[in-house]
UniProtKB/TrEMBL annotation:
<dbReference type="InterPro" id="IPR008333">
    <property type="entry name" value="Cbr1-like_FAD-bd_dom"/>
</dbReference>
<keyword id="KW-0001">2Fe-2S</keyword>
<dbReference type="Pfam" id="PF00111">
    <property type="entry name" value="Fer2"/>
</dbReference>
<dbReference type="InterPro" id="IPR036010">
    <property type="entry name" value="2Fe-2S_ferredoxin-like_sf"/>
</dbReference>
<keyword id="KW-0349">Heme</keyword>
<keyword id="KW-0560">Oxidoreductase</keyword>
<dbReference type="InterPro" id="IPR039261">
    <property type="entry name" value="FNR_nucleotide-bd"/>
</dbReference>
<protein>
    <recommendedName>
        <fullName>nitric oxide dioxygenase</fullName>
        <ecNumber>1.14.12.17</ecNumber>
    </recommendedName>
</protein>
<dbReference type="Pfam" id="PF00970">
    <property type="entry name" value="FAD_binding_6"/>
</dbReference>
<dbReference type="InterPro" id="IPR050415">
    <property type="entry name" value="MRET"/>
</dbReference>
<dbReference type="GO" id="GO:0046872">
    <property type="term" value="F:metal ion binding"/>
</dbReference>
<keyword id="KW-0285">Flavoprotein</keyword>
<dbReference type="InterPro" id="IPR017927">
    <property type="entry name" value="FAD-bd_FR_type"/>
</dbReference>
<dbReference type="GO" id="GO:0051537">
    <property type="term" value="F:2 iron, 2 sulfur cluster binding"/>
</dbReference>
<feature type="domain" description="FAD-binding FR-type">
    <location>
        <begin position="53"/>
        <end position="172"/>
    </location>
</feature>
<dbReference type="InterPro" id="IPR006058">
    <property type="entry name" value="2Fe2S_fd_BS"/>
</dbReference>
<dbReference type="InterPro" id="IPR017938">
    <property type="entry name" value="Riboflavin_synthase-like_b-brl"/>
</dbReference>
């Protein structure tokens, strides 16, 4: 081959490669279609997703307890660089990287996610954290690492590493559909964000807030909620105490006694279509969310965010069908842990599966947003019921929202 011909050939080859590369990047950005992770993949990441994935420093500008028991504390955060805050949709969360002292020894980095607890405000973000004690039936278990770190050590002036807001649990902007916000315990936090946004941006929208908690000691945002209900005729406040204290007065401190359940919703909500938003402790999620399906609420009108280890299983026909399709037993090997286990479709995600078998796996948001459980996928394919918010690195997968699409070898 002559030198000019060789040069022309190389140039043509380079141009072709460039054209294909750009074409692929545009296709991926506009359609974002992937619902599986494979052992290898595309390395191009859209700029907006890169920005969301970056850590940014925030200073704590204020802290404030929200309940009489001082078990729930709000932290106000402003960016150290003085730039504008990233926008968010009410219901979304922030991801934190925290250096937490490990049993009094060296600090170790952990990742945790906390819902934003106020409507978007150009001056700051706000989160509200409940101190998680050891369970009463297991006082020997460790209390919540991150929540106790925040309560005991994080003070005004401290700087924290935070990722931009994310998550697919947020209020639908369609004001014609009344919103039913159901917050159990600290699950009130995303509801506060949605509620404050609604009363400001959509004052004509009917909003029914069901707040389930034990009693007035733990009643967060009590004065704020009562004031909002007084000022906004379309806000219908239902506070539900499960264990009222001796001085708690029905009709003044709370409207209902017991748990938030479908029976209560049936009795109190007017007829017609509603959008349901649910966030609370595992027991509430596991009973209430499937009960809404059984009651006949269409799947697209049920939105939920689960706290804690168990993912919510809807039990509706569509979910059962999808689960049955992939219920064939397959082997899942966890290389670092040295365990090979059989997946039989009993778990909602690979994370639940790993935890049920006692494997220690890092996890943050548990909803595909923060990337804490991202693991190298050495072979096989992982399925996602919907595209995760976190941009999964090529050759990796997310355990918290993934299920096996075939036999797997994972690095974890
Ligand atoms: N610190 C934080 O900010 C974070 C906390 N979490 C998690 O949140 C969870 C606990 O939330 P917490 O605020 O302590 O909740 P609580 O345990 O205080 O429960 C809140 C209310 O829900 C009621 N409840 C219990 N079971 C049901 C049910 N089946 N249906 C309806 N209502 C029910 C409780 O009643 P009863 O009196 O019967 O118990 C109580 O009134 C923990 O799993 C924690 O790890 C997760 C992330 C962040």
């Amino acid at each position: 081959m002559t030198a000019p011909l060789l040069l022309a050939w190389i140039t043509a080859a380079l141009l072709l490669q460039l054209a294909l590369g750009i074409g692929f990047a545009v296709w991926r950005h506009s359609r974002k279609p992937a619902t599986t992770s494979q052992g290898a993949g595309d390395a191009t990441v859209p700029e907006a997703q890169l920005a969301a994935a970056r850590w940014r420093e925030f200073r704590v500008t204020r802290r404030e307890f929200e309940d009489r028991a001082h078990s729930q504390c709000s932290f106000y955060l402003a960016p150290v660089d003085g730039g504008p805050l990233a926008p968010f949709k009410p219901g979304q969360f922030l991801t934190f990287s925290l250096q937490v002292p490990d049993n009094g020894a060296d600090a170790r980095a952990i990742t945790r996610c906390y819902s934003l607890s106020d409507a978007p405000d150009p001056a700051h973000h706000r989160i509200t954290i409940k101190r998680v004690a050891a369970p009463p039936d297991h006082p020997e278990w460790a209390p919540g690492l991150s929540s106790n770190h925040f309560h005991e050590r994080v003070q005004v002036g401290d700087v924290l590493k935070v990722k931009a807001p994310s998550g697919h649990f947020f209020i639908d902007a369609d004001a014609s559909v009344p919103a039913v916000l159901i917050g159990g315990g600290i699950g009130i936090t995303p509801m506060m964000s949605m509620l404050r946004w609604c009363v400001t941006e959509q004052p004509q929208r009917d909003v029914h807030l069901f707040y389930g908690l034990r009693n007035s000691d733990e009643h967060a945002f009590k004065a704020v909620l009562e004031q909002l209900a007084q000022d906004h005729a379309r806000l219908h406040l239902h506070v539900v105490y499960s264990r009222p204290g001796p001085n708690d007065v029905a009709g003044r401190d709370y409207q209902h006694r017991g748990h938030v359940d479908v029976e209560l919703l049936r009795r109190t909500l007017p007829h017609g279509r509603h959008g349901f938003y649910v966030c609370g402790p595992p027991a509430l999620m596991e009973s209430l969310v499937p009960a809404l399906v059984t009651w006949g609420v269409p799947r697209q009108d049920i939105h939920f965010e689960a706290f804690g280890p168990a993912s919510v299983r809807l039990g509706d026909a569509q979910t059962r069908e999808a689960e049955a399709e992939f219920a064939e037993p397959v082997e899942v090997a966890f290389q670092r842990s040295g365990r090979t286990l059989v997946w039989n479709g009993a778990d909602a995600s690979l994370l639940d599966f790993a935890e049920r078998h006692g494997l220690a796996v890092e996890a943050g948001c548990r909803s595909g947003g923060c990337g804490s459980c991202e693991t190298k996928l050495l072979s096989g394919s992982v399925r996602y019921a919907r595209q995760p918010d976190h941009d999964v690195k090529p050759g990796h997968c997310l355990l918290c929202v993934g299920t096996p699409g075939s036999a797997l070898v994972l690095e974890a």
